[in-house]
Specification:
It is a single chain. This protein has 117 residues and is mainly alpha-helical. It has four helices and two strands. Strands 1-2 form a two-stranded antiparallel ribbon. The longest helix has 22 residues.
């Protein structure tokens, strides 16, 4: 999970810098945290069904996590992106946008399949 977070943040910073043309460290970190939140919203809908993880409220499993989980996505994404921003290569990684879109499409398809079946 940690490696995927690192790749998602670096891909998000590439997208923020080279596709959204955001140069500000603060705005780039904010946009990355928004990208990660959007992906998290898609992912959390299927994660328990795929046995990725399960959230509990007391002893009862929850079908969807509470708001604290998404605040965590925002804060963690922002902090990591803010720290990583100055160390990001000035070169363009052409796979970054593809990787983020692919992750989003993957979880959109899984959510649709779970709605159908």
């Amino acid at each position: 999970i940690g490696l995927n977070w690192a790749v998602l943040v670096l891909a998000g910073l590439q997208v923020a810098r080279h596709h959204l043309l955001i140069q500000s460290r603060w705005l780039a970190a904010l946009s990355v945290s928004g990208m990660l939140l959007a992906l998290g919203l898609l992912m959390e809908g299927v994660a328990p069904r795929l046995d990725f993880w399960t959230f509990y409220q007391g002893a009862s499993p929850m079908t969807y996590p509470g708001i604290h989980n998404f605040v965590g996505w925002l804060v963690t994404g922002f902090v990591i992106a803010f720290i990583a921003h100055p160390y990001l290569s000035r070169g363009v990684n052409r796979m970054a946008l593809f990787y983020l879109v692919l992750q989003g499409v993957f979880f959109i398809i899984l959510n649709a399949l779970f709605l159908i079946f």
